[in-house]
Automatic annotation (TrEMBL), chain A:
Keyword Transmembrane helix: no
Domain TonB-dependent receptor-like beta-barrel: residue ranges: 192-592
Keywords, ordered alphabetically: Cell outer membrane, Membrane, Receptor, Signal, TonB box, Transmembrane, Transmembrane beta strand, Transport
Domain of life per record: Bacteria
One of the GO BP terms on file: siderophore transmembrane transport
Entry protein name: TonB-dependent receptor
Subcellular localization: Cell outer membrane
Name of one Pfam family that matches: Plug
Classification via PANTHER family: HEMOGLOBIN AND HEMOGLOBIN-HAPTOGLOBIN-BINDING PROTEIN 1-RELATED (PTHR30069:SF29), TONB-DEPENDENT OUTER MEMBRANE RECEPTOR (PTHR30069)
Gene3D superfamilies: TonB-dependent receptor, beta-barrel domain, TonB-dependent receptor, plug domain
From TrEMBL, chain B:
InterPro entries linked to this entry: DUF5074, Haem_d1_sf, Host-pathogen_enzymatic-act, WD40/YVTN_repeat-like_dom_sf
Protein's name according to its UniProt entry: YncE family protein
Pfam families assigned: DUF5074 (PF16819)
Recorded coiled-coil stretches: none
Origin: domain of life: Bacteria
Species name: Aquimarina algicola
Amino acid sequence: MKYRILCILVTVVIFTQQSFTQENINILDEVLVSDTKLNKFSEGYKLSKLSDSVIRQNDNSLTGLLRYNSTIYFRENGIGGTSSASFRGTGASQTAVIWNGININSQLNGQTDFNTISVNNYDNILIRGGGGSVQYGSGAIGGSIHLNNDFRFVNHFENTIRIAHGSFNTNEAHYKVKFGREKVYSDVGVDYLYSDNDYKYLGTPFRNENGDLRKLNINANTGVFINEKNLLKFYHNTFIGDRNFSGLLLGNSLSSSNDKFKDTNSRSLLEWKNFTKQYTSRLSVAHLHEMFRFFDNNEIEEYSFGKSNNLITKYDFLYKINEDIQVNAITDYSWIQGEGTNFINAESRNIFSGTLIFKHALSKKFNYTFNVRQEATNVYDSPLLFALDGKYNVSDNYKIKFNTSKNYRIPTYNDLYWLGPGGEGNPDLVPETSIQGEIGQEFSFKDFLLSVTAYYINTEDLIRWIPVSGSVWSPVNVDEVNSYGAEINAEYSTSWSKNALSFITNYGYTKSINKETDNQLIYVPLHKVTSSVSFTHKSLSAYYQFLYNGSVFITTDNANEIDGYDVSNVGLAYTHSSKHMNFIIDVKANNLFNKNYQNVGFRPMPNRNYQIQLTYKF
Amino acid sequence: MNFKKLLYTGILFGLILSSCSDDDDSMQLPRGEYDNGILISHEGSFSGVSGQVSFVSNDFSDTQDDIYNTVNNETLGIFQQSIGFKDDLAFIVVDNANTITVVNRFTFEKVDQITTGLQTPRYISFIDDKGYVTNWGDTSSATDDFIAIIDLSDYTVSTTIPVSEGPEQMLIKDGLVYVSHKGGFGSNNIVSVIDSNNSNAVKEVEVGDNPDELAFDTAGNIWVLCGGKTDFSVTPFAKTSGTLVKINTSDQTVATTINFTGEEQPELMAYYEGNIYYTLNSKVYKMDESATTLPTESVIDGSFYGMSIRDNKLYAVDAKDFSAKGELKIFDLSNNQETNSFDMGVVPAKIYFN
């Protein structure tokens, strides 16, 4: 019981950001300005892009999207509750979420709650496997998720309205307007979701009580060409969440909860880009704000809170020495201030970093990139980080990619400054560091794509909260973990006359072993499979989606586990496009076979449920 | 002793000494698979491991995990806080589930379950046909804590008594219920005395900070181990030292106070044959009940989460990292040496002799 407080501390997920990162746009790709820098400097990494049609198939949270379309495993505290990722066997704070080039993991707990990211608001979402701390900052150990907004400098004016209604009184509305001219682009998107979320706990008389949630997401982006060589861009995103957290199913009884969690995250980024064919110079300023309030009793206006502000200024200079060699220098300064009910003597952080990237195409077939980064800060000792990656095009059908890097995860405000019943932060922590490597192969043959990636990650000085005396837990740099495994991705797509067929499957095999005990980490499944098949005939399309999540250990001695499960979803879509009207009607059934399963202990997942969605474009 | 002989002797003594045979377990038939053994209550873990009860036979030849689940094919959830015993029944208290599950203490077959009227229940004690259950109420509220009185004829909460914050363990003497107030997630420094003969009137006795464990001494007075409190609002945490307090049960006043010093915070206490055993900083200390100062030398080393004593043996559980198997260790108090150890489940916490 005494560690319930601590569990709240550990599970309550908050949001915000980190600094340094870079990625963006490079020389204009005709009229579409998007994130080409990510592609340019990640050639030796596995990059997967999630397409629009895939994004539409799942519910609007990033958890739902990635759970069914990647090898990333999620610990979701019931649908809509807090949700953290485990990528390649790493911990919740070792996957970085990158918003338009900026790391937005929380300063308070180092994680991103994947249920606070609305996928409707982004033009493309990419998964980058492997270490990326040099370019993307703290936490990019397992990999990083990139949320990007594109700018289209062409005459257009588009409106999209999407409304959806589903089981458990789940209602969603989404509106996005995009406006473009030759030198101006603007978009605004609003996303609102409300759900009673009171699904049945199969095999019991109970429902998911106190699980209702409301989420509002607002996105706004604007770009202006001042002249041919200068572009100004502004990005903004605000998330406001008001969620009740449901109780636990304990044996044959329901532990009622009246917890409530309110959180707000807002992110703004202003960027000035000056470029020629020879160089690109970018100066950016970003502000990231996160704030959460946790109510032990949703009927009483008493809460504990945490918040942080992060101000980032960054200068990025990319120079093309010749057709084959590019160098990129980046300096970055972050000022971070955190405060909260349970933070005592929390210092503000000043983090200064310098990064150098050198990319060299040795031949048409082979290129490599070397990155190095050093930072200086007042809070902890920071290691020198590096990355080396390369890609070798053996033939048109066969590519080999490899990378090796040193990465880190900095101690969070919780780790350093928490003071509250049951826990005491440790200001002497050092960053977790990893040395890792991977090798990947990609085969393509006509309509068929296959990629096989093997990786190894050694992480040292992992921060773990342990009991230091009878009633007080404290974090220490105690564990060393070896994670290794393989990811296999196969895709097939073809079309004939008015038909199209596509098939995608991902398989992840993940070992994540505590070096001292030789045991697998808790909540890391050995196997995970996702598959989807979709078939389109004229304006009708149908899909079937399948997830197998292997069993996970829930004790550090691997004596107890939660069973594996499989879930199937199906959907049908009708697309109407004409000169005057474009709309799509989607009908979906999730958990088709009404499987009773748990993803996190004591928290049953939803029974079979339905959704109907209308997307209207004009 | 073979079974036939036991049976025969049992019947014989049963016939001859029918009125006083109750006190002599060795002469009785085992009343179920879990008679004549040690029950270890486990809290379970937030990560998804339910609380449970393990059984170790008195001769240590048999150990079984999760006996409630084995018999009844269901789990009870977290955190399994304590077990109370009354006649042939055991009452398993699970705080987050807000339940008390009634089982036959020897067979562990489920008899009933109390699912309403409890909120964060902690311990249960008994007077006649009533069970007294300490409840923290809503853990975020300091003012809704209560004692629930269970009617044992139908296992329902018949009435509640509001009390000060964080009621924890209980001892009963002369119709009075002595309740230590550890303070829940906060802090408190009283022992409530509830008079069951007088409409459950409540009287408060001030003791040290965060009183938890209670034990009768030879004279029938009550020793209270107060752990001391931690002020989490300052850094480094401000702690108060623990205290050992003796309450005179004839007039419900504090008879003796022995202070720990240097912010020392003791955790567990057990009483055995004129001595008080307590744990402090991963050591077990032994103090004569007539002593006025604390011992300086420890008798046993070990980081324990629960401790009980019987037949000159100290039984202690180690919860290890609270997320893997724990361990039960048995020490011979004649030489303080460890004699046996057994693997336990996740977060073993309380030891009872059945």
